[in-house]
Design a protein that fits this description.
Elements (H helix, E strand, L loop, with lengths): L17 H22 L3 E5 L1 E4 L5 E7 L2 E5 L4 E5 L6 E2 L4 E6 L3 H8 L9 H17 L7 H23 L6 H5 L1 E5 L4 E4 L1 E2 L12 H4 L9 E2 L4 E3 L4 E6 L4 E6 L2 H10 L1 E6 L5 E10 L5 E7 L11 E7 L4 E6 L4 E9 L12 E8 L5 E8 L1 E5 L4 E5 L8 E3 L6 E3 L3 E9 L6 E4 L2 E4 L3 E4 L12 E3 L13 E2 L2
Parallel strand pairs: 1-32
Antiparallel strand pairs: 1-31, 2-19, 3-14, 3-18, 4-13, 5-7, 5-12, 6-9, 7-8, 9-13, 10-11, 14-17, 15-16, 15-18, 16-17, 19-30, 20-24, 20-27, 21-22, 21-25, 23-24, 25-26, 27-28, 29-30
Helix pairs in contact: 3-4
């Protein structure tokens, strides 16, 4: 072998066949399609169904009654003789005041013998216990304290009755320092105050109804307590009529006002009653509903605030998500300038136009009607087809109309035809997620129509590629 000769490696030529080329093209196409799929926003459709809304009708309200606070006429130890929630006759004994405290000392040292509870006394205990057991709800645990105080007052009342019966047997000095207090009028007695006894419905504010209101204080009066002169000692509720004021939005309140009466369920004991409806707009600018009742006042004698549920009929219609709802502008056209029935069975208008030589003429333009205002007798036509300043003719005369008036409709995009077609809706009621719209309207939706779930994802007349929700 001669020096300087180099051995070169033989390169095998690349052999391409038609199968590899086709596979490569398909592979690239698939990659491009996948990338485009993830970069393209796909429109989700929603099938319209009939339904109703689960509306939260639970409200916290404040009780307003005819309450008269009575004040202590002499300083000393107060002993009650009327049970809370008891109806007192005029001049009925409510309490006595032991000015020096000697009365209790006398009874502690006196031999009163064994005292047994009568059947009437026992029935008072049974009644209170049974009422508490039936009405108790762990969500309102504070009612336990009201029951405790009421039961304690009942015990002390029965003890005080025995004391009262034996006062004449005590020494005269003790009798001379006792003051008797009688009810000036008939009424239901209660032993607590909170400063809202003179509150009027028109004075209620959001702050007063706030459960976290730090200014609210309920003061309970207990038997055998030391009280000063002119301290609140008890109060009388002189009427079975009472009111409950609850916050409500103005639209809901106006609808309930039309009904005049609404059925109310008291969550504390699940009792139901009918309340007469009045609408209020108070000084804080908020709307309130005043519900008047003529029964059950005694049941809630220990309450200032109540949670209630308004039992109203659910709105039924076509149920659509709020994300599908959109607003759109339209031109208003007098009905005399709309020509019913065109070449394709649709409606038309006669619009002024100019020929190539500049002469004025007219053209028949087919349009779609989106709504009809019966009061003004005007049709809603698409503003993308017409222009402000266009001149319309009547079909049977020379009278003209210059397009200028606009109005807005609330609707959704129907996609039954493969493109975004606006349909007007009439909302009956709505919550945070869905709206109930009127069904069987001439220019609206029908059950089982397909609409765009997110109205912001499409534009008018856009052709739609969709995927299932």
């Amino acid at each position: 072998m001669a020096k300087g000769n180099k051995i070169k490696k033989y390169r095998k030529p690349l052999n391409l066949n038609i199968g590899m080329i086709i596979f490569g093209v398909i592979f690239i196409y698939v990659i491009v399609c996948v990338i485009m799929y993830f970069q393209t926003g796909h429109i989700v459709r929603y099938e319209v169904q009939e339904g109703s809304l689960a509306v939260d009708n639970v409200y916290r309200g404040i009780i307003i009654r005819d309450e008269t606070v009575m004040y202590n006429q002499a300083a000393g130890y107060v002993n009650y003789y009327a049970r809370e929630g008891e109806r007192l006759a005029k001049n009925g004994l409510v309490y006595i005041v032991d000015e020096t405290g000697r009365l209790n000392e006398e009874f502690n040292t006196a031999e009163l013998g064994q005292n047994a509870l009568s059947n009437k006394d026992l029935s008072e205990f049974r009644s209170e216990i049974v009422n508490f057991v039936h009405s108790y709800d762990s969500a309102y645990y504070s009612s336990v304290y009201d029951f405790k105080n009421s039961l304690k007052n009942t015990v002390l009342k029965l003890a005080n009755v025995n004391m009262l019966a034996n006062i004449s047997e005590m020494n005269g000095g003790a009798v001379n320092i006792i003051n008797y207090s009688y009810a000036p009028v008939t009424g239901i007695v209660s032993y607590w105050v909170d400063g809202y006894e003179d509150l009027r419905p028109q004075d209620v504010t959001a702050e007063i109804l706030d459960p976290k209101n730090s200014n609210y204080e309920k003061k309970q009066m207990l038997s055998n307590s030391l009280m000063a002169l002119n301290d609140p000692v008890y109060k009388l509720c002189t009427s079975e009529n009472w009111s409950l004021v609850i916050p409500v939005d103005s639209a809901k309140g106006a609808k309930l006002l039309e009904e005049e009466y609404v059925k109310v369920r008291f969550l504390k004991n699940q009792y139901e009653s009918w309340g007469k409806v009045y609408m209020l707009t108070n000084a804080d600018g908020n709307s309130y509903l005043r519900l008047d009742f003529n029964n059950s006042m005694i049941t809630f004698i220990n309450d200032r605030f109540l949670e209630v549920e308004l039992i109203v009929e659910d709105e039924t219609g076509l149920k659509i998500p709020l994300s599908s709802i959109v607003q759109k502008d339209f031109f208003l056209i007098p009905e005399d300038f709309l020509i019913p029935g065109g070449n394709n069975g649709g409606d038309s208008i006669m619009r002024q136009c100019y020929l190539e030589d500049g002469t004025i003429s007219s053209e028949l333009l087919e349009v779609e009607v989106y709504n009809y205002a019966s009061e003004s007798k005007e049709y809603y036509l698409d503003s993308s087809v017409l222009n402000a300043g266009d001149i319309l003719y009547k079909l049977d005369g020379q009278e003209t109309y210059v397009i200028s008036k606009r109005a807005t409709l609330i609707g959704v995009y129907n996609m039954n035809k493969g493109y975004a077609d606006f349909k007007q809706v009439n909302i009956l009621y709505q919550n945070d997620e869905y709206a109930i719209v009127k069904s069987n309207t001439k220019y609206g939706l029908n059950v089982y129509d397909y609409i765009v779930l997110d109205a912001a994802s499409v534009t008018d007349d856009q052709f739609i590629q969709y995927r299932e929700q």
